[in-house]
Automatic annotation (TrEMBL):
The chain crosses the membrane at residues 51-76. It is found in: Cell membrane. Belongs to the SecG family. Residues 84-122 are annotated as: Disordered. The keyword Plastid does not apply. GO terms for biological process: intracellular protein transmembrane transport; protein secretion; protein transport by the Sec complex. This is Protein-export membrane protein SecG. It comes from Algimonas arctica. Keywords: Cell membrane, Membrane, Protein transport, Translocation, Transmembrane, Transmembrane helix, Transport. InterPro entries: SecG.
Length: 122
């Protein structure tokens, strides 16, 4: 469920970014569609501005509602999981004895290393 909502939120954010960029620029900012189109364009003049602004407002509202809904869904999905729930499983794997083919000698049986490597008993 959360993956579907996340994909829908991503699609809406991309569409909303495009709508914001094609809006007519009021102060000479980043608007792409700010040029005077006369009457020859597909949507020109006041009707285009009104419809783009209306679609931006609708998609902005849907974006906010989906964001809130997504946070609720994530909270419900992760309700019974905590940071310390899996600690015992991880520690068991870390503290288990390692399998080794090398024989480990007890401390009493280890050969003594001379303090001075140049000093040899000959």
């Amino acid at each position: 469920m959360s993956t579907v909502l996340l994909v829908i939120l991503l699609i809406i954010s991309v569409i909303m970014t495009g709508l914001i960029l094609i809006q007519r620029s009021e102060g000479g900012a980043l608007g792409i569609g700010g040029g005077g189109g006369g009457g020859n364009g597909f949507m020109s003049g006041r009707a285009a501005t009104t419809s783009v602004a209306r679609m931006t407002a609708i998609l902005g509202t849907i974006f906010l509602v989906l964001s809130l809904l997504l946070s609720v869904v994530f909270a419900l999905e992760n309700q019974n999981t905590g940071a310390l729930d899996n600690v015992d499983n991880e520690v068991d794997g870390l503290t288990s004895p390692a399998e080794s083919s090398d024989e480990i000698l007890p401390l009493e049986e280890t050969p003594a290393i001379p303090a001075d490597p140049t000093d040899t008993d000959e």
